[in-house]
Amino acid sequence: MQTANVVEMAGDLDHIVALAVDTQRWPVILPHYRWVTLLEGGGDHKTVEMAARRGRFPVKWRARQDVERDGPTPIIRFHHIGGVTKGMDVAWTFEPTPSAVRVQISHDFAPPWPVVGNLVSDRVIGPYFVEAIAGRTLNTIKGIVEDRDDRFHPDGRPRT
Questions:
Q1: pTM
Q2: pLDDT digit string (tens) for 119-130?
Protein backbone atom coordinates (compact mmCIF):
# COMPACT_ATOMS: atom_id res chain seq x y z
CA MET A 1 0.00 0.00 0.00
CA GLN A 2 1.30 3.39 -0.93
CA THR A 3 -0.74 6.52 -0.32
CA ALA A 4 -0.12 10.25 -0.34
CA ASN A 5 -2.20 13.12 0.99
CA VAL A 6 -1.22 16.62 -0.17
CA VAL A 7 -2.46 20.02 1.00
CA GLU A 8 -1.18 23.52 0.27
CA MET A 9 -1.12 25.80 3.30
CA ALA A 10 -0.75 29.57 3.10
CA GLY A 11 1.56 29.99 6.06
CA ASP A 12 5.08 30.04 7.41
CA LEU A 13 7.11 26.85 6.82
CA ASP A 14 8.65 26.87 10.32
CA HIS A 15 5.23 27.25 11.95
CA ILE A 16 3.72 24.41 9.89
CA VAL A 17 6.66 22.13 10.72
CA ALA A 18 6.40 23.03 14.43
CA LEU A 19 2.72 22.01 14.51
CA ALA A 20 3.49 18.76 12.67
CA VAL A 21 6.47 17.83 14.87
CA ASP A 22 4.66 18.44 18.17
CA THR A 23 2.78 15.13 18.13
CA GLN A 24 2.13 15.16 21.88
CA ARG A 25 0.00 18.27 21.32
CA TRP A 26 -2.03 16.74 18.48
CA PRO A 27 -4.95 15.67 20.72
CA VAL A 28 -5.37 19.36 21.65
CA ILE A 29 -5.36 20.69 18.07
CA LEU A 30 -6.66 17.66 16.12
CA PRO A 31 -10.16 16.61 17.22
CA HIS A 32 -9.83 13.11 15.75
CA TYR A 33 -6.79 12.29 17.92
CA ARG A 34 -7.72 10.69 21.24
CA TRP A 35 -4.23 10.71 22.78
CA VAL A 36 -0.52 10.71 22.04
CA THR A 37 1.74 9.38 24.78
CA LEU A 38 5.50 9.88 24.80
CA LEU A 39 7.05 6.48 25.52
CA GLU A 40 10.73 7.28 25.03
CA GLY A 41 13.04 10.07 23.90
CA GLY A 42 11.92 13.58 23.05
CA GLY A 43 12.49 16.45 20.65
CA ASP A 44 13.36 15.24 17.17
CA HIS A 45 13.74 11.55 18.14
CA LYS A 46 11.00 9.89 20.13
CA THR A 47 8.73 6.89 20.42
CA VAL A 48 5.03 7.57 20.85
CA GLU A 49 1.77 5.72 21.18
CA MET A 50 -0.94 7.40 19.13
CA ALA A 51 -4.68 6.89 19.16
CA ALA A 52 -7.17 8.46 16.78
CA ARG A 53 -10.66 7.94 15.46
CA ARG A 54 -11.84 7.25 11.96
CA GLY A 55 -15.47 8.13 12.39
CA ARG A 56 -16.70 5.83 15.15
CA PHE A 57 -13.75 3.44 14.78
CA PRO A 58 -10.91 3.84 17.30
CA VAL A 59 -7.39 3.08 16.05
CA LYS A 60 -4.10 2.91 17.94
CA TRP A 61 -0.45 2.37 17.02
CA ARG A 62 3.10 2.95 18.23
CA ALA A 63 5.71 4.72 16.16
CA ARG A 64 9.24 6.03 16.21
CA GLN A 65 9.31 9.66 15.11
CA ASP A 66 12.49 11.15 13.69
CA VAL A 67 12.89 14.64 12.28
CA GLU A 68 15.59 15.13 9.65
CA ARG A 69 16.71 18.76 9.52
CA ASP A 70 19.82 18.47 7.35
CA GLY A 71 18.16 19.17 3.97
CA PRO A 72 16.58 22.29 2.51
CA THR A 73 13.36 21.54 4.40
CA PRO A 74 12.75 19.16 7.30
CA ILE A 75 11.33 15.69 6.80
CA ILE A 76 9.33 14.10 9.59
CA ARG A 77 9.53 10.31 9.50
CA PHE A 78 7.46 7.80 11.43
CA HIS A 79 8.09 4.07 11.52
CA HIS A 80 5.18 2.13 13.03
CA ILE A 81 6.43 -0.39 15.59
CA GLY A 82 3.10 -1.56 16.98
CA GLY A 83 -0.52 -1.97 15.99
CA VAL A 84 -2.18 -3.26 12.82
CA THR A 85 0.12 -1.05 10.72
CA LYS A 86 3.36 -2.32 12.30
CA GLY A 87 6.11 -1.85 9.72
CA MET A 88 4.50 1.12 7.95
CA ASP A 89 6.76 4.03 7.02
CA VAL A 90 5.36 7.55 6.95
CA ALA A 91 7.04 10.72 5.70
CA TRP A 92 5.89 14.31 6.04
CA THR A 93 7.58 16.50 3.42
CA PHE A 94 7.35 20.25 2.92
CA GLU A 95 7.79 22.17 -0.33
CA PRO A 96 7.60 25.96 -0.16
CA THR A 97 6.01 27.65 -3.18
CA PRO A 98 5.73 31.41 -3.82
CA SER A 99 2.31 31.59 -2.14
CA ALA A 100 2.10 28.55 0.16
CA VAL A 101 3.77 25.42 1.53
CA ARG A 102 2.89 22.12 -0.10
CA VAL A 103 2.68 19.52 2.68
CA GLN A 104 2.59 15.84 1.79
CA ILE A 105 2.12 12.82 4.03
CA SER A 106 3.22 9.61 2.30
CA HIS A 107 2.56 6.13 3.68
CA ASP A 108 4.28 2.92 2.58
CA PHE A 109 3.03 -0.35 4.05
CA ALA A 110 3.62 -3.96 3.04
CA PRO A 111 1.73 -6.04 5.61
CA PRO A 112 3.27 -9.35 6.64
CA TRP A 113 -0.04 -11.19 6.47
CA PRO A 114 -0.01 -14.02 3.93
CA VAL A 115 -2.51 -14.14 1.06
CA VAL A 116 -4.84 -11.27 2.10
CA GLY A 117 -2.33 -8.69 3.36
CA ASN A 118 -2.06 -6.49 0.31
CA LEU A 119 -5.75 -6.78 -0.49
CA VAL A 120 -6.73 -5.63 3.01
CA SER A 121 -4.15 -2.82 3.13
CA ASP A 122 -4.85 -1.56 -0.40
CA ARG A 123 -8.66 -1.67 -0.21
CA VAL A 124 -9.47 -1.06 3.47
CA ILE A 125 -6.60 0.21 5.62
CA GLY A 126 -5.23 2.66 3.03
CA PRO A 127 -8.35 4.40 1.74
CA TYR A 128 -10.66 4.10 4.75
CA PHE A 129 -8.24 4.66 7.61
CA VAL A 130 -4.79 5.96 6.61
CA GLU A 131 -5.87 8.42 3.90
CA ALA A 132 -8.90 9.56 5.89
CA ILE A 133 -6.97 10.26 9.10
CA ALA A 134 -4.02 11.88 7.29
CA GLY A 135 -6.37 14.03 5.21
CA ARG A 136 -8.21 15.26 8.28
CA THR A 137 -4.88 15.94 10.02
CA LEU A 138 -3.59 18.06 7.12
CA ASN A 139 -6.84 19.96 6.66
CA THR A 140 -7.14 20.74 10.37
CA ILE A 141 -3.55 22.02 10.53
CA LYS A 142 -4.24 24.07 7.39
CA GLY A 143 -7.26 25.64 9.14
CA ILE A 144 -5.12 26.58 12.14
CA VAL A 145 -2.29 27.99 10.01
CA GLU A 146 -4.67 29.97 7.79
CA ASP A 147 -6.69 31.17 10.83
CA ARG A 148 -9.88 29.43 9.75
CA ASP A 149 -10.15 27.22 12.84
CA ASP A 150 -12.12 29.14 15.47
CA ARG A 151 -10.52 27.16 18.30
CA PHE A 152 -6.96 28.43 17.74
CA HIS A 153 -4.91 31.48 16.83
CA PRO A 154 -2.69 30.95 13.74
CA ASP A 155 0.26 30.25 16.06
CA GLY A 156 -1.64 27.27 17.53
CA ARG A 157 -2.51 28.88 20.88
CA PRO A 158 -6.11 28.23 22.03
CA ARG A 159 -8.50 31.14 21.71
CA THR A 160 -9.87 32.24 25.06
A1: 0.90
A2: 677 766 766 678
